[in-house]
């Protein structure tokens, strides 16, 4: 990819929607399953108040696979885990924002009602199944407990259902392994159990936080095939990852986060072919898999992510950005609409009036 | 590799012959050895001066154990490790220490491999002082020189590891390894824990240093796209044995081992059409009880009955003139068209 031509090409592209986009800018008429508007989350630490998520808005439609990508510490996991309200508080604190899911604001819903949604209508797959599963209980018991919490089934009927899902997720010998403890299974098998638990109640939304990062590449391929095959057509998937390869492989649409803010969103092909934000462009150019054969140096992004305790004024990427202008130091660029439901938070994308 | 005509055996910086690193499994109150985990099993490898050999495999395949055995961190069961024409496996004490500066290692987790109570200056000059390579009064200037070499600010001498980001810490580790003027650096997943943008910076640094000083790397990684970028040759490891090795382009463009092909097809490359995948069945079996015959046969879609009996050795591939190319598969000469 050539950086400058890509960006200037984009600048010249006529914008179909001139006004800056607002939350839930939807290309289609179907109303989205989930809308997050202006979510901000901070953590109170000994060193001060740390901004984890800053004014993030996003939406997911039914059946859609949305990727949330960014480097470690960018706030992607905090944003996603705020949906089922799994951020421990304290130290976490939601400063503002709504999380509209099926007509209710999850951000303020009483815990007793939220419990009917967690696991039942929103399934969660964590990166490390070892810390998400109880080490003291057999996997079957954990599955049966979850099923019976949300469905009025007898213990034996729930066990049949658990067995069926272990079989569907490719666990060998389900009848034998249903009584195994998590430590007795391999990493790939534990992740399959997690997926079975997230899928078995057929939720509307699955939040998957780096579901394959801890796994080997060949097992990752198996898990992705499985997630694609088992997801019912209406289930939406929010996939959090640091790996642009995973986004390309799995998602319909991607949101790129940098330093607690969304800097770009759009359909996969657009984001990869013509990145709208210099950070996305730099991220793609840093990938060895995309480097031309025998290119000696990778065009790395210089410098490092600023500390979330002291984000600089203005655009947080500007110290690493090859296109930075004086203006970037003065204010944070808003998300500008680029047409086709695309957005980028960069002054280079500001519609010319 | 030995068959490359240009290099005679003594041109090798490192020659590993039939190396075994077996870990005993002890049972019962008398701790009787009831078996072995064969982490590295009969592996032979060569590294010539200045070259980068990528060692690739999934977790548990023995690649890290192999790297650790080279620098003396794991005991060698049988086999030979010759480094600069000295037998490392037989050396102990002072003799071993005399050779060790020239063979350095960088680990995956820089936070765990830096002493949190030592300043950056002490970290990067500790080895030099221990081996009397510099005088104490020279340590400041030497530390500054090393930090400049790895792209760090010279004024951080009195700071501690926790004050730095992951990428910066890895640079400190590289400076420490470099201080000994090594001829070979074992990089064990040295960039795997870093974010993509920082990973690219550190890869660039490793390549710059190679150009400047001419040291060789054994680059251990699970990531084929990183290895393709940095290495000239690659060895694919599976369950303690080498499945296939040779020049990077040859092995990656024309794999002859089904396992290599599967690893390649599981790299996710953006902007490429999603490829038809060969996904191996199941998980890696336990290394304490490796399958008989070819260790890959239970997961291999091309396995024949013979694969269950015969354990293949790395052998040249018919019709492929590339020097130094070997593949440990009984069907290596017939599968070319089935593998991507």
How would you characterize this protein structure?
The complex is a heterodimer of chains A (353) and B (340). With 353 residues, chain A is α/β, with parallel strands linked by helices. Chain A has 2 domains: 181 residues, P-loop containing nucleotide triphosphate hydrolases (Rossmann fold), CATH 3.40.50.300; 74 residues, no CATH class. Chain A is 30% helix and 22% strand. Chain A has an 8-stranded mixed β-sheet with strand order 6-7-8-3-9-10-12-11. A 4-stranded antiparallel β-sheet of chain A has the order 2-1-4-5. The relative contact order of chain A is 0.16. With 340 residues, chain B is α/β, with parallel strands linked by helices. Chain B has an 8-stranded mixed β-sheet, with helices on both faces. In chain B, strands 2-1-4-5 form a 4-stranded antiparallel β-sheet. The longest helix of chain B is centred in the middle third of the chain and has 18 residues. The radius of gyration of chain B is 21 Å and the shape is globular. The two termini of chain B are 25 Å apart. At the A-B interface, helix 8, helix 9, helix 10 and helix 12 of A face helix 6, helix 7 and helix 9 of B.
Detail the topology: elements first, then pairings:
The complex is a heterodimer of chains A (353) and B (340).
Chain A (H helix, E strand, L loop, with lengths): L2 H10 L21 E12 L2 E13 L4 E5 L6 H6 L10 E10 L2 E2 L5 H7 L4 E4 L3 H4 L6 H12 L4 H14 L5 H4 L9 H13 L5 E5 L7 H14 L5 E6 L2 H7 L2 E6 L2 E7 H6 L4 H8 L50 E4 L2 E3 L9
Parallel strand pairs in A: 3-8, 3-9, 6-7, 7-8
Antiparallel strand pairs in A: 1-2, 1-4, 4-5, 9-10, 10-12, 11-12
Chain B lengths: L13 E14 L4 E16 L4 E5 L6 H8 L7 E6 L2 E2 L5 H7 L3 E4 L13 H11 L8 H11 L16 H14 L4 E5 L7 H18 L2 E6 L2 H7 L2 E6 L2 E7 H6 L4 H8 L49 E2 L9 E2 L13
Parallel strand pairs in B: 3-8, 3-9, 6-7, 7-8
Antiparallel strand pairs in B: 1-2, 1-4, 4-5, 9-10, 10-12, 11-12
Helix pairs in contact in B: 3-4, 3-5, 5-6
